[in-house]
Write a structure and sequence with these properties.
This protein is mainly beta. About 10% of the residues lie in helices and about 40% in strands.
Length: about 100
């Protein structure tokens, strides 16, 4: 997984507010219309089986169960007038639901 500069900057800002955290953890859970959804949590340590991505001083840990799902994925952060969110440009996705909250592999 790679991070855009926008994602790196947003993660740095988030972690400044949580000094006890060392990075973010990204995972995939079963839920939503299409079956899978991304989950992002603060991480106070690297899990035993987590994959670590370090980019421009930012650490992102990938949950063991999500590693194959996120292979080749780019994590970005976008802001519009109505929302701000992390998005995942994942080449492995076969389809998404209408609302964009979940996907299938």
């Amino acid at each position: 997984m790679t991070l855009t500069s926008s994602a790196v900057n947003r993660i740095k800002t988030l972690l400044l507010q949580r000094p006890e955290c060392v990075g973010l953890k990204v995972g995939v859970r079963t839920r939503g219309c299409s079956g899978l959804s991304y989950v992002i949590e603060y991480a106070t340590e690297k899990g035993k089986f987590d994959e670590e991505v370090t980019q421009d001083g930012v650490r992102v840990f990938i949950d063991q169960k999500a590693q194959l799902t996120l292979l080749g994925t780019e994590m970005d952060y976008i802001e519009t007038k109505l929302s701000s969110e992390f998005i995942f440009n994942n080449p492995n996705i076969k389809g998404t639901c209408g609302c964009g909250e979940s996907f299938t592999m």
